[in-house]
């Protein structure tokens, strides 16, 4: 039995985009190239349906390239490189507890559990419809396939965690918060860090662009002023997890790892 971590670019999204592109192409042929309509209306429909076809084709190609890069069984295996890279920062004492926010298919929680076999790792996710193939059962199946027994998974909300303050020795997350509709993602980070014990470690990887998160250097200073002994914002697009060119065409520019210990 092998684990199935799926893909961060779900096939469903690709198929939907391809279907929409095919529809635009069909409409372009029917209304733009035949004599079914004429005059100004034909010109407008020609432009609209051609533009839809071109844009759809470009987006479909981009999604397919992302799928190939992230695919665990592919050549690039960027997902595995990122997951393993984050897990290296997480050390949990024997008997301790870790929290993976937005665990998806369980990859990060399981990677951390394997590196910390005497700790208990909780994976939490809302498992939304946009990632319909990701669910609790899949996480549990992947843990079993990896021979990991120190994980558990539950449904939850990253913006309102159902855990008391200072519950976990480590908190971690990967490419989650930028997907949450919010005007203050720094506040969501603080909600996560609320559950971290004093002396604990956090390792959170995301697209920390200014448009999504605001001034992250100021946030790093804020954490230090709050008593976090060591806080680093590490660029992961300089060859650490991906090359600079990959981060650009994948639209992952700004990807960084926020790590620290309080």
What would your notes on this structure say?
With 262 residues, the chain is α/β, with parallel strands linked by helices. Helix content is 43%, strand content 18%. The protein is built from 9 helices and 7 strands. It has a 7-stranded mixed sheet, with helices on both faces. The protein is elongated. The protein starts with 10 loop residues before the first helix and ends with a strand. The model has no long low-confidence stretch (mean pLDDT 95).
Keyphrases for this structure?
262 residues, Rossmann fold, 2 domains, 7-stranded mixed beta sheet, 7 strands, 18% strand
Rg over CA atoms = 22 Å
Catalogue the unreliable spans: none
Structural class: alpha/beta
**Mean pLDDT, as a whole number?**
95
